[in-house]
Give the backbone structure.
Amino acid sequence: MKLRNRILILLCASPVLFCGCDDAEQKKLNKQWVQTAEQNAKDYILQKYGIDAEVTDTKQERRPMWIGSEPLSTVLVNMKYQDRAFKVYIDGSQPNHEGLDSYQKEDLEAFIQEQCEALLPGVHSAVLESTELNSNLSKEESDNLYSGYFDGTNIQDFLNSLQSTITVQYVSTDLTPLETRQEDLKPFFQNEKNKIQFISYRSEEDLQNGFLSAESENAVFADSTYLFTKAESQYHTYQIGSFDSFYYYVVDGNPEDVTVSETVPDDISSWEIGKEKKAKFASKAYAIGSAKDCSVVVWIPKSEISDYERHAWLAVCRGTEYTAESRSPFIYSDEKYLYDIVTFPVHPDEKFYFTFIKY
């Protein structure tokens, strides 16, 4: 049989595989699964917490296929009780009381904040981010769902069933006293999947801008961090250097470890990106050097970049001329600054150059 005929037979015999469409029978089954899951969620929450919660919305789980997706009997049920909104993940193929939910997230965070406040006063907030469910839902939908029950005393056992990160936030607070409180913190990181991190931001404004910032962004907003895991504890301070109107941070080092100067770049038409895009400079150009290997994080005021809203590239070069490379930056920004969370490696006897360009 010719290959073409085989393909036609396969396409006709397996429409769901290739189009991911739900036929009328499947749609009827989907509706039944969702309805059963809604009732299961109500019964599950009533049995677990003794509350009669209402269903506000549902999302049926689907498994991605080569083309399209396959419907599953599991459903994410959004619910509400009094002024608390939460979600339940449960199967709808038959009546059952086995699920996961986020109902206690606020209670858990309040407990963690209270415990940390007793160890180091001045807690602004405590945030618990956890994963127990492995599903086809998005990370936002599947995170912070728990099968366990927190009774106010079993925090260690509760967290042991999760992969969790607790972030405790302060403003302008010395975190070093935590060094002597590690024994009290152990319930929060008793297995290799759990960690608790303390972040002291420079100001209330920095806390809002850097809320739950990634580790590589900490220098932009925080003056210090303290991380505790089962394997180790790590304390970091972030000393900021400045030159002209921009700021920089030397990873695991000090601002004095590098030299910074304004420089005059080559004619941009000689760059590869300049030839292709007819680019123009959108900011001053700077050179960073160091007597030792290090990495530098830089953030620049938007006011220093002409026509900011239209700028498209951060040009990054090494060596003696702007000829090595140019790339699109992965940029975060707040009201005042641009900052690239990708650290720039600087090597001895080789200056590192950067500038913004626009088309």
Residues 1-19, 320-330 have pLDDT under 50 and may be disordered. The CA atoms of residues 117 and 320 lie 52 Å apart. Residues 244-358 form one domain. The longest strand covers residues 69-81.
